[in-house]
Design a protein that fits this description.
This protein is of the alpha/beta class and about 150 residues long. The chain has three helices and eight strands, in the order βαβαβββαβββ. The model has no long low-confidence stretch (mean pLDDT about 95).
Length: about 150
Amino acid sequence: MDVIMQLTFDCADPQRMVAFWCEALGYVPEPPPDGHTSWREYWTALGVPEDELPAGAGDAPESITDPAGQGPRIWFQRVPEPKVVKNRLHLDVKVSGGRDVPMAVRVQRVNSTVERLTRAGATPLRTLDGPDLDHFAVVLQDPEGNEFCVA
């Protein structure tokens, strides 16, 4: 049996999350399947009842994909309740180049990405850079409070 993985974020504003995570990951909004002008039109053609589609659902892309085809599809599912606790799963956005790269270069790469994502709506929470660590990372929150690391 084939297994296809998709990451799903529960959220209040799918379009805001699509924009942010496209910026963070270099992904692109996923267009509706061929022959359909929107995801809502596609879902309706599949027979999804209108009462199962909240107002505005599928009118604009609510999912993103890796243009290189390497990473998983990510769907931002609108839910009515707000996020109230720390997420138990987080994404690591790896930009440093790894332990073979000099620490000063890794720090510059991470900090540059953190600055870019902060301008896009992220909130830095803490830096992981103790003297006993041989890595450098920054923990941030996306626009809806989901934690992730830039390392």
